# Entry
Amino acid sequence: MLQLTRSAFVCTESPESLAEMRRCFDRSHGIHLPGFLHPQLLDIAQRSIREASFYDRADEDLALEQCMHNNTLVAMLYLIVNDQGLLGTVRHITGCDSITAFIGRVYQMRSGVGHYARWHNDLYGARRIGMSVNLSDGEFNGGIFELREADAPTVRWAIANTGPGDAILFRVAEGLQHRVTPIEGHVARVAFAGWFQSGPDLLSLLKAGVDPRNRPASP
Amino acid sequence: MPELSLDLCLTPSDQVVMRELPGESVLLDLKSGFYFGLNEVGTRAWSLMMQGGSLQDVNASLHEEFDAPPAVIQAELLRFAGELCAHGLCRVEEKDGR
# Structure
């Protein structure tokens, strides 16, 4: 298991298992990480989300979602996902050696309010690997993450990622696209999602007096 | 807050999340949203405190691991512990957990 806890990133996988994860990622361009967020942290996140405010965010005609306003939860998530052990493990699994930091946002998609995420590739700036951590308060329906090669109509990899605190990693590249299918039912799909990328690491930003939450997670 | 002595233990607040970064570490207080940076010695002291020993145990380990006069290490440890408590990052417990 790969898991973020309050004090550290914990990897209990053997070298052989990590090698298999890399082969799986090479084949599918995506991988599922069950139980990625420790239940204690997930509980903190879900309690914070219940009290948080969201704003509508539209990304041209590709996506419409609600983003959570920056708060302490976002600061916590930034801190724990920029763990050096996690960054190293993601480099190992994905073969993407240039990763130095993660940047993202908490967002939600609901049914009946026009939220969508159509096929797109996330290519922007220094993004290399996408990650989405499920923070939903219950099991949502629909909201399946699908990934395909841009020139092929068939879905290469699909996953609902409904497990509490589960995460997915997926490759961001010119020839790949992904989308999230519409939500059905009353449970919102809530995720901390963003990208592992090259560039200044978290510590450099903090030392420079830059609040990492104020860096744009999206174009 | 009681005056700190080496007989006391410090327990991290449930509201603190910590990460070690290259050469140092960062604490985040979930109540205030403030980040706190710890240098190498502070990181080691925090790690030893979290193992549940008394400040006396922490002091003994720091004596073994760092090249500084014993009086300086002890004074700096108590000052550091006091700052952690003052910011609500830790709470004080006596050795028997009271």
Q: What stands out?
A: Chain B touches chain A at residues 16-22, 24, 26, 28, 30-33, 35, 37, 50 (CB under 8 Å).
